[in-house]
Amino acid sequence: MAGPKKIIIDTDPGIDDAMAIFVALNSPEVEVIGLTTIYGNVYTSLATRNALHLLEVAGRIDIPVAEGSHVTITKGTKLRIADFVHGVDGLGNQNFPPPKGKPIKQSAAEFFVEQANLYPGEVTVVALGPLTNVAMAIQLDPLFSKNVGEIVILGGAFAVNGNVNPAAEANIFGDPDAADIVFTSGANVLAVGINVTHQVVLTDDDRDILAKSNGKFSDYLCKILDVYFSYHREAYSTKGVYLHDPTALLAAVNPSLLTYAEGAVRVQTIGITRGLAIFYNKQKRFGEVTEWSDKPSVKVAVTVDAPRVVKLVMERLMSS
Ligand SMILES: O=c1[nH]cnc2c1ncn2[C@@H]1O[C@H](CO)[C@@H](O)[C@H]1O
């Protein structure tokens, strides 16, 4: 019998990243073989610090952390950091002490390539931030896109408005050039966009249940969730928060929680729609060659069993 699925979580923690990491650590279907870090919710160096801290909270310092890129794939340094969503420390302004651990010497991209070569077809990368590290791995090793088992992406706003602006979702907007490289790489890609994750809401009542449960992970999260709840109340008038990262993580754990369409995805890299990801379902045979014509298909999530996802997230956070 095959063992648990090996996953590497590429992360920019981030409150919903913290949730996803804890859910993963409490999911017997997967083995977390590493965390890699990227800018997005915070800068990369803080993402590394937070990744190490979260593993220490979880008592899992056996899991290596590889630091990722500090700049976009085109060496851009004008990064968009979402500290207004997660707090200046990325973890709800709690001023946690610095972690004791250190990242490994390898970069995130080198770690991806090494692990995909070590276990061809068996490693799933769950990318919860901008896709710079994944695109760098594709550029570093021409065989990476074949050797990696699957790349599950939290990103895109397929046929709905974005969350950075009407066109773009935050992770794709963070590095649109990298995203286009990943979507057109031929790797086995599954994208979970905010068209799906906006259906998965952890309500105020769910949070009360988490708070009363006395689980290690739920206790920790209830401390940091305030900032995330306030942001959602202000930005969306929702009585709850979107479970972006945990939903993408669970898509890697149990793909049957969602349904998917297959087709080619291209990302706009310039202009007012920079970061817009457009899915082509390959149904119409266009009379002319398009920028999508010869591109490999990826899977894009279309529906989600939201009550089951919320229930699973809660169970796994409370039973810690
Ligand atoms: O309004 C927003 N702007 C920027 N980033 C956001 C916003 N809402 C959530 N996220 C963060 O970006 C990813 C989903 O796009 C999630 O990781 C979430 O934490």
TrEMBL record:
EC number: 3.2.2.2, 3.2.2.3
PANTHER family assigned: INOSINE-URIDINE PREFERRING NUCLEOSIDE HYDROLASE, URIDINE NUCLEOSIDASE
Species this protein is from: Panax notoginseng (notoginseng)
Name under which the protein is recorded: Inosine nucleosidase
Annotated localization: Cytoplasm
Domain (Inosine/uridine-preferring nucleoside hydrolase) ranges: 7-310
Cellular component annotations (GO), alphabetically ordered: cytosol
Entry's Gene Ontology BP terms: purine nucleoside catabolic process; ribonucleoside catabolic process
GO molecular function, one term: glycosyltransferase activity
Keywords annotated in UniProt: Cytoplasm, Glycosidase, Glycosyltransferase, Hydrolase, Transferase
Family listed: Belongs to the IUNH family.
Xref: InterPro entries: Inosine/uridine_hydrolase_dom, IUNH, Ribo_hydro-like
Reactions listed under catalytic activity: xanthosine + H2O = D-ribose + xanthine; uridine + H2O = D-ribose + uracil; inosine + H2O = hypoxanthine + D-ribose
